[in-house]
Specification:
Blueprint lengths: L2 H13 L2 H8 L3 H15 L4 E4 L2 E4 L1 H25 L7 E7 L1 H18 L3 E7 L2 H9 L5 E5 L7 E16 L10 H4 L4 E3 L5 H13 L7 E2 L3 H9 L4 E5 H9 L3 E18 L6 H16 L4 E2 L1
Parallel strand pairs: 3-4, 3-5, 7-8, 7-9
Antiparallel strand pairs: 1-2, 5-10, 6-9, 6-10, 6-11
Helix pairs in contact: 1-2, 1-4, 5-11
């Protein structure tokens, strides 16, 4: 077993296809198949079940995938740490961010970073905070901007700024000048799914106010919320920057919910040193937040 075989195995597992993995790796498919057969022979187990649409991991394969990703990431981290000591660092930096904040928080830092470190490539992945936190923990992201009510023991979270939680609706719908718990309990709501940070905050707000909230739709999709609002289905509860742009273009209207906000944090793994690339990029993000007129720092 060697690192190349593990990389091949992980690529096939992620793509669920030998052919797609071969294209991604720029390796001939027969060579890829041969390496996997050698790996299966050495481990004395079957890693994939083949079918018409591709392949699926066996239970044995799932066990190896967990270990293989950890070993690959540890090796890559070692390379990055060594390269970070050179005058011109190189490698790959993987960053996560909620879709509504990507343009606001990452555009300037990415441009500045690539000018400073042209030999480092950047991967940006968008997602909801809970998934981004999991990706940092499983080493598929190096750093992420996410919302956490409290930081898990395995993550370091540095707060960047407060973002208000707003209620959004169509231009024709009624919206009072001040949002009250009573109003929230009286209208059809579009809210995040349970186990989402924003939903947890909303449920805590409702419990403290002694009201019952029964959303008509639960979704993490900003686009779906926007479509449903414009169709007159209900009122969306979401972080300010997810839909504020639509209010500026007079397609929607919105108001902040008094006392309800989320802390946006910069997160990374606690149990390993921060790479130079991650540290330098984090500094650029913090500078962007500090200089932005639209943030309230915490």
């Amino acid at each position: 077993m060697n690192l190349t075989q593990l990389r091949y195995f992980v690529a096939i597992a992620r793509n669920r296809s030998f052919s797609r993995a071969a294209v991604e790796l720029h390796v001939a498919q027969p060579a890829l198949t041969r390496h996997i057969r050698l790996l299966e022979d050495e481990l004395d187990g079957t890693l994939f079940v083949r079918h018409q649409k591709g392949v699926e991991l066996t239970e044995f394969g799932k066990l190896l995938l967990e270990r293989a990703e950890l070993q690959i990431r540890s090796f890559d981290q070692m390379q990055e740490d060594i390269q970070a000591r050179s005058l011109i660092p190189s490698g790959r930096l993987r960053i996560g961010c909620p879709p509504a904040l990507t343009g606001r928080l990452l555009s300037d830092p990415v441009r500045s970073f690539l000018k400073l470190y042209p030999r480092i490539s950047i991967e940006v992945r968008e997602g909801i905070s809970d998934q981004l936190a999991r990706d940092v923990f499983t080493d598929t992201l190096d750093i992420a901007i996410a919302s956490l009510i409290s930081a898990p023991a395995h993550l370091l979270a540095e707060r960047l700024f407060k973002e208000e939680i707003w209620i959004f609706t169509s231009q024709n719908a009624y919206l009072p000048s001040r949002i009250t718990p009573k109003f929230l309990s009286s209208v059809p709501l579009l809210a995040a799914r349970r186990s989402n940070v924003i939903r947890d905050l909303l449920d805590g707000y409702a419990s403290q106010a002694g009201i019952a909230l029964t959303p008509v739709v639960e979704t993490d999709s900003t686009q779906l919320n926007e479509d449903l609002i414009e169709a007159g289905i209900g009122y969306a509860i979401a972080p300010k920057f997810s839909l504020i742009g639509k209010t500026h273009r007079l397609q929607l209207k919105g108001r902040p919910i008094p006392g309800l906000f989320v802390n946006r944090c910069l997160i990374r793994r606690k149990d390993r040193p921060e790479s130079r690339a991650a540290r330098e990029f984090s500094t650029l993000v913090k500078t962007t937040v500090k200089e932005a007129p639209w943030t309230e720092t915490v």
